[in-house]
Amino acid sequence: MFNALILTQEGKSTLANVGQLQVSDLPEGEVLVDVSCSSLNYKDGLAVTGTGRIIRNFPMVPGIDFAGVVVESSDKRYKAGDCVILTGWGVGENHWGGMAEKARVNADWLVPMPEACDAEKAMMIGTAGLTAMLCVQALQAANIQPDSGEILVTGASGGVGSVAVTLLARLGYKVVASTGRAEENSELLKSLGAAEVMERSELEQDARPLEKQRWAGVIDTVGNKVLATALAQMNYGGAAAICGLAGGFALPTTVMPFILRGVSLLGVDSVSCPFEKRQKAWEQVLALLPESYYQQAGQTITLEQVPEFADKIVKGEVTGRVLVKL
């Protein structure tokens, strides 16, 4: 028997309780893993609270990330004792996920634990850090260089945003961090490398189709009016890497930034990212993040605390990464 956070549905309400399962309860998969750590992401928060229709089939074990040690494997790529990481692939949404002491998954979804990494460090990065690294790589591929101009990071207090700020600063970019809690988080964001911190409300006004040029690049986790305003303020030839919809999935903008200023909109997905690209992003993010990041940008909770923190993360009351120790 092992402990797991189990989501059930009662009427239209989602209930989250820690209970016990056995290995035979787990869904099919080639690899059985002893989970050391998971993490709490915004999507996990939506799933656990039932705020978003993330879960369609109950019961469900949430947790879109986990890191641990292989117990047994029918796939030759992995053997007992191997340390592995999983992020994405619908795990924690339609396949039981990482908020349990054991998980059984498809081998294709795993990445070997890179050298100089451990389970806690991997989950302090997790889906959020992987996504941030992919966004940075997308800007680099669009030829947005440190001397191109300022880079705006929206939702900078969150998991993706805080990692993106750190990575960009380490690469020499001038970063402006936008957050809904600027006064509360300004000191932390500047310690992570932000040159300036601005209130999200400055980007939530109804924007004109084109505004004064300011941003060479944008990493956006919010969407909606925030992204629309950022696009209207893009420099000629700028690029925006977008990966989130914390502010909603609408995009109230026009074609004008794209056809008059040559702006590029770069969609970034980490859920189904191919293995080679995923592995390269893991190696690069580990090489770039300083040791100080792991102390500054996260906190550790227990499985029993997940429902409480899930509510907080959906309300925008959590800063940085949340590691779940199993």
Automatic annotation (TrEMBL):
SUPFAM superfamilies, alphabetized: GroES-like, NAD(P)-binding Rossmann-fold domains
InterPro entries: Acrylyl-CoA_reductase_AcuI, ADH-like_C, ADH-like_N, ER, GroES-like_sf, NAD(P)-bd_dom_sf, Zn-ADH-like_protein
Highest taxon of the lineage: Bacteria
Pfam family, one: ADH_zinc_N
Residue span(s) of domain Enoyl reductase (ER): 11-324
Full protein name: Oxidoreductase
